[in-house]
Design brief:
By secondary structure, this protein is an alpha+beta fold. It has helices at 7-21, 39-44, 55-63, 66-71, 87-95, 101-104, 160-167, 188-198, 209-213; strands spanning 116-119, 125-130, 142-146, 152-157, 205-206. The protein is built from 9 helices and 5 strands, in the order ααααααββββααβα. The termini are far apart.
Length: 214
């Protein structure tokens, strides 16, 4: 494993890019006045359920806490308290409460009961951090939800580290499908861990697949 392409080391590359040039996409706002958290603040932070922060998040918060507050993870960037909503409520927040499709993601909570934190990206599709089981690097998967046809959920990134690196365009990633990173030579092993841990499989699941699982 190339350690520079995972976890805190990869986030260091993201921070360098954002400091130097800002975000290359309008989906993520420029961070003109970063709000860094002190090491002692980061040390006492815990995810819902008391779990420690993944390495990527610890490193990012040491640079800036304001952006994730703007995304909707917490209210106070100086004293973060992470949200505790499940997939259904998080999907409604991301898509808006109108219509049947966003509400249908609550049905996935039978399979995916852990807390979700919203991220930017997509239109009919959205991204979120799923705080289920971490992979062998201590990172949690970034899931994609889609309402273009039937409600669909899959593992899209193996962690916040790779998601932010893709958002900052410091990695050359090819997404023929949402789950293309399952075949990536560097990220494939982590993707497969999450596919097994979440029971979403390598290709993700549509809502009618939940009946088959039952």
């Amino acid at each position: 494993m190339n350690e520079s392409m995972h976890g805190a080391a990869l986030i260091d590359r993201v921070i360098e890019r954002v400091r130097r040039e800002g975000w290359p996409t309008s989906e993520a706002p420029d961070i003109t006045d970063p709000v860094p958290l002190a090491p002692e603040v980061i040390d006492r932070l815990r995810l819902p359920g008391g779990r420690p922060l993944p390495p990527s998040l610890r490193r990012w918060l040491a640079y800036d806490s304001s952006w994730l507050a703007n995304v909707g993870w917490y209210e106070d960037p100086l004293e973060p308290v992470f949200g505790d909503q499940g997939l259904g409520a998080t999907a409604e927040w991301m898509y808006g409460s109108g219509g049947v499709m966003p509400g249908a993601f609550a049905d996935f909570e039978k399979l995916l009961p852990a807390v979700c934190l919203p991220l930017v990206g997509g239109c009919d599709s959205r991204r979120l951090l799923y705080l289920g089981a971490p992979d062998s690097t201590g990172e949690y998967p970034v899931l994609v939800t889609d309402i273009d046809d039937l409600p669909y959920v899959a593992v899209m990134y193996p962690g916040l580290d790779v998601y932010l690196a893709d958002l900052a365009e410091i990695l050359d990633l090819d997404f023929d499908t949402y789950t293309s990173l399952a075949e990536h030579p560097e990220y494939g092993p982590r993707m497969r861990e999450h596919a097994e841990n979440t029971e979403l499989g390598a290709d993700g699941l549509e809502i009618q697949d939940l009946d088959w699982l039952d």
